[in-house]
Amino acid sequence: EIFDETLIPEGDGLKILAVWTSLESQMIRLISQPATEIKQPPQQLIYKAPFLPQKTAATPHAEDVHRYHLETIKDGTEQFDRIESTVSHLYRRPHPILDYQSYGQAFLAKLREEKEVESGSRILEVGGGMGSISTDIMAELKKEGTPIEYTIYDLSPSLIRSQQKMHRQKGVQACHILGNGEFLALKDESIDIALSNEVIADFNTPEVKTSEVQDYLFDHEIPMTKEFFNPYKDEDAQEYVRVNLGAFQLLKELMRVLKPGGLAVVTEFGYQDRLPFRASHLDHAEYSIQFSQMISVAAALGFNLYLTDAFDFLGFRSDVNLITAFSYQAAFRIMESLGVYLPNMAYTPEMLEDELGSYYNGFRGLQFVGVNKDPFKVVKFLVCQKPDSIPQDQA
User: Fold this and answer.
1) Is residue 136 included in any domain, yes or no?
2) Rg from Cα positions in the chain
3) Above pLDDT 90, what percent of the chain?
4) How many domains does the chain have?
């Protein structure tokens, strides 16, 4: 009716509405039902502008990811609550969607289905975030009396401090190494289990002329199967492509440092049918992972492997209602105006009520919706096991 009355073509009108209702503009807000059917308007508007910090190229070291991690990141909580909220961060507390496990606890349970965590095992985490996964894994193993050595390789001094703070609070301890996870200063065959969770999008992803990719990877001693080049066979193939070189180098390093029979699980957002592209919502350069090429490199290195995703690997449930991103941001800004910090999590109504206490009853219009599998499905889990050593008499 609006388009008919204004003589605006429907396609153009929908584009205009998309801009006007966006989080960045917030010029208008659509209601969920006809105005004539609404008995009482919300007592408190659930939005305050601006919701999201502006992401611009002015961010220090936005293109130089190494310097960004070394110098720009100041605090783990701020980084993952306000700038880059990963799936693991949103589910860092025990949650009904994971049968009341945290992400880290669920990760450990699934690791154990792949490989036994024995007393004295050495576990490596490449990129430790703010420390929630390592804390939960070490705390669980400590509680059951399984001593292990846990090492975290991280490029950010600030994130290491956040990890250490969280570890102290839970009475656990890890060895921290400040360094680039693409090149591990670790001995050969020294690690039993390795994990890298939602990290490798930050790794080196150079732009290479498509016709020169094979020579480029050969110069960097990256092996691959012939299937590696399938994504370039499209008639509309680009002249230049991004190559997940850093992620390939990590796979190569993991094959070196894992003990025979060792396990590695590498997770990140990406696709099997799309070439690497830059994430547009962050304040620094991150690139998606081309997982068919990751499989090619891992297979050429000699790993036994399979590819799955966060939803299937960790066993996320689909019968839980979660707060929408719009409603969380609204609640965050309102609580901020009251001097209360609302952590960024995937709240259920019950979790949000527990978090807000008496404030919760003052809200109207918050939306909780059923689980959308897509955000979980786009986070891939590459599960790699290093073969056992070949007996000397068979070599």
Assistant:
1) yes
2) 23
3) 65
4) 3
